[in-house]
Design a protein that fits this description.
single chain; eight-stranded mixed beta sheet; 51% strand; mainly beta; elongated; 250 residues; 2 domains; Immunoglobulin-like; 1 helix
């Protein structure tokens, strides 16, 4: 993770006297960066705020900007929409944590405004993070739910990158969704998890990131969508990656 120039390099003391302090984690209001890599779907500690003043510090933190892939920003375990207020005793700290909704580079900006006995601080800092999928995710198969009930990606891990093949509008062929980072072992829907149309048809195939194949509903044959009246169908073996090429309409 990177932050803006310095970290709380000065505070304003009584009678308007500016007091110079050291940068980053050793400043009067210290900011110790812990991690720049955030696993998608997991609340991850990225920095620690420390009160190095001799007195208790009342601190207001405002979220001035955050990228769309950042789902949540929490400070001291609290995650309101726009900002935080907390009190830190001398030497006490609070953790800044972030949750990402999908992979990619992201940034956010926080404003810190604090008051202590005879001094104040007012600084804005930018943070840059990398939102990554869990590297040890292992997909063992896909469970196709009947009709438009969705799918479950089975395996070991929190999230994985995946796209789905689904019945096109009118039933003449299939379309492929964009690739999204999605949770494993949970029911996933076309429009909710893969940014597909709300009136999209049944999911008939799943392509998982890092794999050369595709999981295909066992009843999908000759570009015909399977009968939706059956129960769950679990598929553990992949077909060739070009399986749906002749059926694609997009």
């Amino acid at each position: 993770m990177s932050i803006g120039t310095g970290a709380f390099s000065s505070v304003e003391a009584e009678r308007g006297v500016e007091v110079n302090v050291v940068d980053d984690k050793n400043a009067y209001l210290g900011l110790d960066v812990e991690d720049e890599a955030v696993t998608v779907g997991k609340l991850t500690d990225v920095a620690t705020i420390t009160n190095s003043f001799a007195d208790r510090l009342s601190l207001d933190i405002t979220i001035e900007q955050r990228d769309a892939v950042i789902d949540e920003i929490a400070v001291g375990g609290e995650a309101p929409d726009n900002g935080f207020s907390l009190g830190l005793g001398p030497g006490k700290d609070a953790v800044i944590a972030v949750t990402c909704s999908q992979t990619g580079a992201a940034s956010f900006k926080l404003r810190f405004e604090g008051q202590t006995n005879g001094a104040s601080v007012d600084k804005v800092r930018s943070f840059e993070i990398d939102c990554e999928s869990e590297t040890d995710s292992v997909v063992s198969g896909v469970t196709f739910k009947p009709g438009n009930s969705g799918i479950v990606i089975n395996g070991n891990g929190a999230t994985t990158d995946a796209s789905v093949y689904y019945e096109s509008k009118g039933g003449s062929g299939v379309e492929q969704s964009k690739t999204c980072n999605v949770p494993m072992e949970e029911t996933l829907k076309l429009n909710q998890n893969f940014d597909g149309p709300s009136n999209g048809g049944e999911i008939v195939g799943v392509a998982v990131g890092g794999s050369d194949g595709v999981f295909v509903h066992q009843d999908f044959d000759d570009c015909e969508v399977p009968n939706s009246s059956g129960g769950d169908v679990e598929v553990t073996e992949e077909a060739a990656s070009g399986f749906f090429d002749q059926c694609l309409v997009n």
